[in-house]
Amino acid sequence: MKTTDDLRAALSYASPSSTPDTIGMIAKGRRIRAARRAVAGFAAVTVAAAVGLFTALQPGSGPDQPVPPVAGGAPNPVLVAAYSSMATEAPVKFDPLRRTLNVGWIPAGLGAQYAEITPWEQTFGGHDAAYVNGGPDIGLVVTVLARKRPVTDFSDGALGLPRFAVAKPTEPVNGAAAECLTDPKVPGSCPAIRWQYAPDAWARVSYAGSAGATPAQAAAVARRVAESVTLTKDQTVRMPFTLSGKLAGMTVTRTSTQIYSTAGNHGEAWSATVQLAPAGTVVKPTDDLLQVGLFVDVMLVPGDPSGRIKDRDGQPNTTVNGHPAWRAADGTAVIVFGASGTRSAVGYPDGHGDATAAYADVALLAHPADPSAWQPLK
Amino acid sequence: MLARAGRRGAEEEFAEFVEANHSRLLHLADLLIGDRARAEDLLQTVLIRTYLRWSKVRQDNPIGYVRAALSNARTDWWRRGGGRERPTEKLPESVVPDVAAWVVDRDAVQRSLAALTARERAVVVLRYFEALSESEIAQTLGIAPGTVKSTSARALGKLRISPELSTPTPMGEQE
Asked: Of A229, A224, A200, nearest to A212 (Cα)?
C-alpha cells in the first residue's frame, strides 16, 4: 500500500449485498416503545404511591430527603468473591484466575449477571429486568481498577449518562473521597459514582434501571452498591472445563463468566470464556486482550444438547472427539457441538494457530450444568 | 387517527432510509467492529434505536446519527455487552459459501485494522471510508480535532508496517 488512496480502496472491499429486516425492526421498535410505556406507567404509579406514603410518614419531606428503600440482595455467589476480610491495598495487577471483588448488594431483578477479570480490572454487572435487547442500556456495572491505573481506564460511557459526564465531589464512599458522574442536563443526577477503594486504586459503579425511576433513586442505588464493594481475600475462578498440556502453560489474560437468570442470548444458561497468551507473555494495558493468543469459550443451552446455535453457527464439517464440529477453513477456529451438552469453541483471533490441536488440551467437565460445581482451570 | 397516520408515514420514511443505506452502514459497522455477525447485531440495535428516535433524528442527520452510534458503541455496556463481545461470535462468519474473493479482501483489511485501537480504527474508517473531515470526525467521536489528527497519524503509522498492507514505499497523504 503506497498511498491513502490505496487505503480507501482497501476499505471499500466488495461486500455481499444485505437485505435489512425493516419490518422486523419496526415491529421490535413498537414492542420496545410499548414496554417503555408500560414500565413508565408502572414506575409512575409506584413512585407516586411511594412518595405519597413517604410524605405521609415524613411530614415536611422535600426533594432532598432520602428515597424509599430498594429491594435487593447479594449477587450470584459464583460471580463474586465471598467476603472474608477487606484488603487495604490493591495490587498493580489482578490475576485473572483469582477473584477478589466482592459486591455485597445489588438491586433485585438483575439478570444476565457477569464477572470479568483482566490484569487491569475486575468487573461485575448485569441487565436490568426491564432490559430489552435493542432498547436502552439499563442495568448495573461495577468496575474496580488495579492500583495505579488512571480513571481514564473506565470506558467513556457509564450507564445512565451521556458519553462525557461531569464529575462532581460527593459524600465519601466508605470514608474515601468520591465523585458523582452527572448528566449536566439532569439536576441531581448521579447514576455513576467513582471513588478510591484503596490507595491509588479506583472503583466505579454505574446504574440505570427499574429501581432508579428518578435521579435521586438511581443515585441511591449506585451509592448503596458502591458502599458494598470491597476487595477481599482471593478465591479461585472456576470454569466448566480444565486445561492441560500446552494450554495449561499459557498465560491467562482474561476470564469471563455470564450466568443468566432466564434464557439469555440464543437461550443459553451460562457462558464462560478464558483468553490465553503464549507462555511468558507480559500484556500491557494498551493491548486488546481479545486479539492476543487464543480463547476458549464454552456455553450451555439447557434443553438443547446439540450445543449448536442454529441461526448462527456453520454446519458441522468435521468431528472432534466423536462430536460434530465446525472447523474454519484455515484451521484457526473450531466449535464442537454437544460435548458434555455444551457448545465449546477455541479460536485464534489473530488468525495464527491450530485450534483443533489446542482443543485437545481442553477437558470439559462431565456435568457442567451447575456453575457452583465448576472446577479450577488448572 | 391523525397520529396513527403520521406514525405510518414516519415508519415508511424510516423503512426507506434503512433500505437505501443498509448495505453501506453494514459495511461501516463491519469495518468498525471487525466481526460481520456482531456488526449485523450492532447495526440492528442501532437502527431500532434510530426508529425509536426517528421523529427527532429525521429532521437532523439520520446517517450522522447512525454513524455516531456505531462509532461510539463502546460504553460500559458494550464493553461486555451482555455477551455481545463474546469472541466465539467471530467464528461463523468465515463460512460464507460463495464469496471467496470478498472473504480474502475483507480478511486482509480486517487483520490490518486489528492492530489499531478502537479509537484509531474509528478515525481511520471515518476518514478514509466515510470521507469525513477532521472536524466532522471530532464531532462524531466527541474528541478534539487535534486528537483526530494525532490519532490518524498514529494509525497510519501502524498500517504502514502491517504485513497485510505494507509495501516498500511508505504510505503518504495524497490530498
From this structure: A224
Query: Nearest C-alpha of chain B: how many angstroms from A22?
Result: 6
| Residue A44 forms part of a structural domain | no
Strand partners, A345: A297, A335
Report residue B115: phi and psi, to 5°: -80, -10
Is A40 part of any domain?
Answer: no
Are residues A348 and A208 located together in one domain of the fold?
Answer: no
User: What residue of B is the nearest CA neighbor of A285?
Assistant: B117
Last residue in a domain, options A233, A258, A277: A233
Q: Which of A202, A233, A264 is the last residue of a domain?
A: A233
Q: Are strands A176-182 and A318-320 parallel, antiparallel or unpaired?
A: unpaired
Please choose, from the candidates A20, A163, A10, the residue with its C-alpha nearest in 3D space to the C-alpha of residue B43: A20
B87: nearest CB among A17, A21, A347:
A347
A357 lies in the same domain as A215: no
Q: Which residue range(s) make up the domain with A83? A: 75-233
Cα distance between residue A291 and residue A212, in whole Å: 36
The domain total for chain A is 2
Whether the CB-CB separation of A253 and A292 falls below 8 Å is answered with: yes
Tell me the three state secondary structure of residue A269.
coil
Q: How far is A313 from chain B (nearest CA, A)?
A: 5
pLDDT, tens digit, 9 for 90 and up, residues A302-358 = 888 888 877 667 789 999 999 999 888 888 889 999 999 999 999 887 778 999 999
